[in-house]
Amino acid sequence: MSNYSPKVSVMIVTYNQEDLIGETIDSVILQDYPNLEIVVADDASTDGTQAVIKSYQEKYPLQIKPVLNPVNLGITGNCNAALGACTGELVAMMGGDDLILPGKIAAQVKLFEDPEVVLSYHPVEIFLHQTGEILFTSNTTEKERINDVYDLITKGGIPGASSVMVRRSACPAHGFDPSFPVVSDWIFDLEVAMKGKVVELPGVYGKYRKHGRGASDRTFELLDESLRTLDVIRKHYPDDRKLEEACQRGGYRYVLGEVYRQVIKRNPEKVRQLRPYLLSYCSGFKRLLTGAAIGLLSNPLVMSMTVGLLQRLRTTLKRVA
C-alpha cells in the first residue's frame, strides 16, 4: 500500500458568492483526504461572502486559510493571492461556485505518485444553477481527451476549474500571468503542462455551475485575450514546431467555435467581425473556403436557413476543425 500522502492546497477564489461559497467549502471539507488545507481568497466582496468564510475558519481553524483582499484585484490578481498562500505540494483549483465530489482529492493525488505528472484533470458535470439540471458531462469522448500541452492548445483548455490539480513546483514563477485579466487560467495550465505529463483521472469528480455572465458566457468579449494566449506561448517556445502547429490549429478551431455561437445567436455583424481572425489561422485552399463560408454566413437570410443545420452538425464541425 502506498504511503504517498503529500499536502494538498485546495485553492478557492470567490467574489460576491455569499449564497454559494458555503456549499463549495463543504464539498472540500467532506473529502476523505487528511493532509489538506483550504485556501479561500475573497476579492473584496460587497456582500456577506467574507463573513461566511470567517465563520468556516472559526469552525475549522486548522483547515481553512482565508485570504481577504482589502481591495478588488480582479480574477487574475485574486488567483495569485490564493496561489501565493498555498503551501501544499499539490494545488487543486476551484471557483467559489464549483463543487467537488466525494473521493476526488484522494483519487487525483494517486496520479502524482509519478514524479513526471504536473497536471491532472477529470470530467465534470455542467449544470444549470437556476434548476440544477445537468446540461452535459465534459470529456466523455476520445476526441475531448487531453494527453499533453498540444491537446490543451488545440482543444481549447479544460472545462471546469474544479477539475484541475497541479504540482506546485511546476507552476510559473509569476503565477497567473497578470497581462491576462480574465482568462489567465488557460495560459497558466499551458505553462504548467510544458513542464511534464498531463493525465486524466477517469470518472466524474466535480460539478461546474453555469449561471450566466461568467467568462464562458462572454466568449466574444474575451476573444482577443484568448488568442493573445497563443501568441505569448509561441514566443515563449519559438523552437517548438509542434507547438506552433497546435497554436495555428487551436486558434482556427477557437474562432470557428465563436462563429458558430454568433450564427446561433443570429448576429451577422459579429460573424463579419470574426472573418479576419479566422483567416489569420489558415492559408491556401482552406483560407479561400473559409472566406467564402463566412461571406455566406454573414448574410441574414443564409444565416437563418443555416441555424438548424449547424445545431445538428455541431459535434461534427468541432471534430473536423
Task: Return the CATH class of the largest domain.
Answer: Alpha Beta
Strand content: 15-25%
The name CATH uses for the topology of the largest domain is: Spore Coat Polysaccharide Biosynthesis Protein SpsA, Chain A
The largest sheet, given as strand count, sense and whether it forms a barrel, is: 7 strands, mixed
Number of domains: 2
SSE topology string: EHEHEHEEHEEEHEHEEHHHHHH
Proper CATH architecture of the largest domain:
Alpha-Beta Complex
Mass-distribution shape = globular
According to DSSP, the number of beta strands is: 11
The spatial strand order of the largest sheet comes to 3-2-1-4-9-6-10
Average predicted local confidence, pLDDT: 89
What gap, in angstroms, lies between the N and C termini? 45 Å
Structural class: alpha/beta
Uncertain ranges = 213-217, 315-321
User: How helical, in percent, are the residues?
Assistant: 40-55%
Rounded to the nearest angstrom, the radius of gyration is: 20 Å
Please count the helical segments.
Answer: 12
Annotated CATH homologous superfamily of the largest domain: Spore Coat Polysaccharide Biosynthesis Protein SpsA, Chain A
